[in-house]
Amino acid sequence: MKTVFVTVGTTSFDDLIEEITSAKAVNVGRGSVFPDPENFPHVNLEVFRFKDSIAKDMEQADLIISHAGAGSCLEALGAGKALLVVVNDKLMDNHQLELARQLHMESHLLYCTCPTLTETLRSMDLSVLRPFVPGQPQKFANFMDKALGLQ
């Protein structure tokens, strides 16, 4: 059985939650939409507002569908999972789109909006995704120590 993990982080993104109908687990954050698992007899649906950690949920997922928050994106990519980001185009400055576009240009994720989610799920090719290599802050710290004469 394939597992999809859906998260909106701690934000409210009701449009995404309403759009999702076939997920293993849906994190609904602060939103007002709280799907009733009994309305989805064809899937095993677990719904929650918050958990101390979603690392295990991400680890068990075959696909992660997320809002385009930096924390959620980096956690999913750091877990080495296929990631489909749904940009909340209702945000005023739409900073999520910038992040999604950049990570997509580097072939780390796919992205769409709520109105295009269903078509994206039907047509996506996850084989084009490349692993995300996280930064190495210790190398930067060592560089700065050397540059400042502390080493």
Shape: elongated
Strand order of the largest sheet: 3-2-1-4-5-6
**Helix vs. strand class:** alpha/beta
Largest sheet: 6 strands, parallel
Number of helices: 6
How would you summarize what this structure contains?
By secondary structure, this protein is of the alpha/beta class.
What would your notes on this structure say?
- There is one protein chain.
- This protein is α/β, with parallel strands linked by helices.
- The chain contains six helices and six strands.
- A six-stranded parallel sheet has the order 3-2-1-4-5-6.
- α3 links the parallel β4 and β5.
- It is elongated and about 65 Å long.
- The termini are far apart.
Structure characteristics:
151 residues, six-stranded parallel β-sheet, 33% helix, 17% strand, alpha/beta
Topology diagram in text:
Elements: E1 4-7, H1 14-19, E2 25-27, E3 46-48, H2 55-60, E4 63-67, H3 70-78, E5 82-87, H4 95-105, E6 110-113, H5 117-123, H6 137-147
Parallel strand pairs: 1-2, 1-4, 2-3, 4-5, 5-6
